[in-house]
Design goal:
The protein has 221 residues and is α+β, with helices and mostly antiparallel strands. It has two domains: 1-38, no CATH class; 40-204, GHMP Kinase, N-terminal domain (Ribosomal Protein S5, domain 2, 2-Layer Sandwich), CATH 3.30.230.70. 23% of the residues lie in helices and 26% in strands. The strands form three sheets. The protein has a five-stranded mixed sheet with strand order 1-2-3-5-4. Helix 3 packs across helix 4.
Amino acid sequence: MAVDNTIIANPLKLLKYTEVLEYSLKGGLRPDGRTPGEAREAAISSGFIGTANGSGCMKLDRTSAVCGIKVELSKVPLSYTKGNFSCKVQFPAVCSVNSRKGQIQQTDICNSIELLISELIEPGIINLPGTEKPLIKLEDLRILDTNWVWNLDANVLCTSYDGNATDVCIGAFVAALKSLELPAVVVNKDDGKPLIDENGPRTGLALNSHPFSTTFALYDQ
């Protein structure tokens, strides 16, 4: 059930929505036709973007998001022991009628989801309960015996927005991370620079957990 982002900021709109919700629940249904205990249909897929090192997609009824992860090598000081991670979340205007009307606060939504995803990789950013252990070890992104590391760049795109955006964005990201494969690397003995071996075996990252997001609301008459 999608909720207009302007409802919270507009008490009159909230009142109207509450009336609709009460009327629907009296008939044993939500406004979108589901029963109170009926969940949205979910689907997850991965590994379908050929130009990305890892990719994932999650669809939750009429809300969907895709994620692509690219990797690249970066030179760092010898004191560095970890690779780097960055994430960008986008809600294009075509993903929702409300987005085209400017009613979705894209910056706020994107920033909050980016923080949640970053918290999964580097716990302690926002101290979210249950994320004390990182999803992956950034130390695994360092090329052994060199001062080179892998940079992971995740891009999440909400392709259709009808509520539960956090759930599908995180689901798409985790699916992409699970399908991620790092290219084989050969270190040049002369200058110590790693070279990507396109014909070598690719390796995935070990995930310490398989998190998922579930958004819900409490309604009390």
